[in-house]
Design goal:
By secondary structure, this protein is an alpha/beta fold. It is built from 24 helices and 21 strands. It has a seven-stranded parallel β-sheet with strand order 11-12-10-13-14-9-15, with helices on both faces. Strand 3 (about 85-90) and strand 4 form a beta hairpin. Helix 7 crosses helix 23, helix 8 crosses helix 10 and helix 9 (about 270-280) packs parallel to helix 10 (about 300-315). GO terms for molecular function: ATP binding; DNA binding; DNA helicase activity; hydrolase activity.
């Protein structure tokens, strides 16, 4: 139940004085919410120092300044395009105020000669003189008025002014209780020099003085509060999960050893460590929730196969769920090759299956004769049942919604779940994205995986690139050609135009895949390329993840300067999977900007996905790197991951320590954390246990 002190904060925006039917939707759009608290979480992105300067001489061109002077003269404009000019004077000289299209009567009433005025605005240099055009504030000091000492500046949308938003936020600030308990560790607060929660809000929205260090500390304090709220919610969810019984999957070591002995290579140390993590999780009697994160080609499928073998040897079924038909078929082929010779029964199930074959698969899953299945969304359809499902493995987990995973989990009683991702993210972001999962990272590549030679080539050499691809196709190799867009009439770098041009110039049957095609059409085109019916595939970034064609040796990325680093790396990972040398051609349109040049140079220098992700984070920021909000886990309101990422780990340890020291959740600090979660954790991230 919500603490009654918070009731005014969760009242609707329309409860604020001056907010009517027209203003309410504008504010809701601006703050991304409907409550007074949502308005208070709309933080300033900068502050203006409005203190009155000693003299005009203290102003700097290009900066905001507040000054006081005597009205020396008023000059009306010569024509409609000229401004009204008011000349102020002080001990250091003159300053001109310029007003375009002003009412002369208003000007004379506002600026009588000899009167003192305080004005604030951006100072410019005009014909050797200081000038402020359309000041933000014009104040008569004789009336006892003054501009704000500090003015917070907020992000705005059409129809709203900064002054109006700030006025409403000051009204909302009065609803924040001053007597809320301290939920952060008091020693940490003292060590960091943070203000109290209420004081932090005041310093951001209504600061008593201009102090950039205090602004930063106030923002950092609220960022930590948000991190702590999230991490305590994650800790609760994990604690609740540990109370749910799950299959105890414990297989003899010989089961996995047989698979290792059958491999033509030795697994990497990272693969064995991850396999040990998973094996340990499955013996604990509560549901595993683990992320297996590994770069392109790091061997995630083999680690997952180890887990499936353990489950089968212990009498449980496993399913591999992939986001597309092509990936599901590829996964089936890999698993069938690895495991069928060892006596395990592997099957595939997707939307393509019909008739007797489908019925046989459904029957095998229901009676348990099929031990391991690979498939798509078809796996969690109502007609599908399992005899003893113990392990769910979700590939490219970011492409599935939470509901998809839960539907499949609903096919059994608390099955273990392993989710896999080939999208490396900076280690500084891992806790932000995967706070509710245990994480195993594959940071080694299997032996024999050849590096991909990466070259940046200007598009003035397009014909040379096409000729090189023609020679490779004659040698029996295959090539990808990625374009930034589907079809633009006046741009030959679109997929449709490039497909037609390459088919004509190379005199080959070329494949085409893009996002506007129906799923069945995309799957058919990918399958034709995989089986060699087509030898060059022109595509947009829909082939970024998962397509495994060992014969593909060349990846051309057209207009590469427009892609993100992580995306370029994922695309490059589609080649170099066979025994022949592989190449990635970054075809760019000169001249290159500084950021684009750094991006392409980074890709040429390294194939380490985590190093590339860190560079991408530095160049583009967290939002662009992550691309989409991940199940509510990263839609932070206060935290700037580039600045506050380190707070997440501190908050995680703090939340776990509080819960461990107060398992009954009766202590004062845990009760205070309930309030923090109410204020700073989205309902989606809170989960059903978060009210405890």
């Amino acid at each position: 139940m919500r603490d009654e002190r918070l009731f005014p904060l969760f009242a609707g925006l329309e409860t604020l004085t001056g907010v009517g039917p027209k203003l309410t939707p504008l504010l809701q759009k601006l703050v991304g919410g409907t409550t007074v608290w949502d308005l208070l979480l709309h933080l300033p992105d900068r502050w203006l120092d409005r203190r009155v300067r000693e003299s005009f001489a203290d102003t700097v061109a290009g900066e905001i300044a507040t000054v006081q002077g005597e009205v020396h003269a008023y000059h009306q404009p010569f024509n409609d395009r000229s401004p009204h000019r008011v000349q102020l004077v002080d001990s250091s000289g003159f300053l001109t105020l310029a007003f375009f299209r002003a009412d002369p009567r208003w000007m004379k009433s506002q600026f009588p000669v000899g009167a003192m005025r305080i004005v604030s605005g951006k100072v410019e240099e005009y014909r050797g003189e200081r000038q402020i055009t359309h000041p933000d504030f014009v104040i008569d000091p004789a009336k006892g008025e003054a501009p704000p000492i500090v003015e917070p500046i907020y992000p705005l949308t059409a129809g709203l002014t900064n002054r109006r938003v700030h006025t409403l936020i000051l009204q909302a600030l009065q609803h924040v209780p001053a007597d809320l308990p301290e939920w952060a560790d008091k020693h940490l607060v003292a060590q960091k020099g943070w203000p109290a929660f209420h004081d932090a809000l005041v310093w951001l929205h209504d600061p008593p003085a201009y102090d950039e260090d205090r602004f930063a500390l106030a923002r950092e304090r609220l960022a930590y509060d948000e991190a702590l709220a999230r991490e305590s919610a994650f800790a609760l969810a994990q604690a609740a999960r540990r109370l749910r019984p799950a299959p105890i999957i414990k297989a003899p070591p010989s089961a996995v050893n047989r698979l290792i002995d059958a491999l033509p290579y030795r697994p990497t140390g990272a693969q064995m460590r991850a396999a040990a993590d998973i094996s340990s999780d499955m013996t604990r009697g509560y549901p595993m929730r683990r992320l297996l994160q590994g770069d392109v080609g790091s061997g995630k499928t083999l680690v997952a196969a180890f887990a499936a073998v353990e489950a089968a040897a212990a009498g449980f079924q496993s399913v591999f769920m992939a986001p597309t038909e092509v990936l599901a078929r590829q996964q089936f082929d890999t698993l069938d090759t690895l495991l069928s010779p060892l006596g395990y029964t592997v099957a595939a199930l997707s939307g393509r299956d019909r008739g007797a074959a489908r019925e046989a698969t459904l029957m095998g899953l229901a009676d348990g004769s099929i031990q391991i299945a690979a498939g798509t969304h078809a796996l969690f359809q109502e007609a599908v049942s399992f005899r003893n499902l113990g392990l769910i493995i979700v590939d490219e987990q970011h492409r599935f919604g939470v509901s998809d995973r839960m539907k499949l989990a609903g096919k059994a009683d608390s099955p273990h779940m392993l989710v896999m991702s080939a999208t490396p993210i900076p280690r500084t972001l891992a806790q932000a994205v995967h706070g509710d999962l245990d994480v195993s990272i594959l940071d080694e590549k299997p032996p024999g995986r050849k590096p991909v030679e990466t070259r940046a080539v200007p598009d003035t050499r397009l014909e040379d690139v096409i000729e090189a691809i023609g020679r490779a196709l004659k040698r029996g190799e295959r090539a990808f050609w990625v374009c930034p867009r589907v079809d633009v009439d006046d741009d030959d770098s679109s997929a449709v135009a490039r497909h037609a041009a390459l088919a004509d110039e190379l005199n080959v049957k070329a494949g085409l895949v893009h996002g506007r095609m129906k799923p069945a059409e995309k799957d058919a085109a990918l399958e034709d390329f995989r089986t060699g019916k087509t030898r060059i595939l022109v595509a947009t970034t829909v082939i970024e993840v998962g397509v495994d064609v060992p014969e593909a040796t060349i990846m051309v990325i057209e207009r590469a300067e427009g892609f993100g680093l992580a995306q370029l790396h994922q695309l490059r990972g589609r080649v170099g999977r066979g025994d022949k040398p592989a190449f990635c051609i970054l075809l760019y349109r000169p001249p290159l900007g500084e950021t684009a040049r750094e991006r392409l140079d980074t890709l040429r220098r390294t194939e380490d996905g985590f190093e590339i992700a860190e560079a991408d984070f530095r160049l583009r920021g967290a939002g662009d790197v992550l691309g989409v909000r991940q199940a509510g886990a990263t839609d932070y309101r206060v935290i700037d991951l580039a600045k506050h990422g380190a707070l997440l780990e501190i908050a995680r340890k703090d939340a776990e320590a509080v819960l461990a020291g107060d398992p009954d959740r009766k202590g004062q600090r845990w009760q205070a954390l309930r309030i923090a979660r109410e204020l700073l954790t989205p309902k989606l991230a809170q989960g059903p246990e978060s009210s405890s």
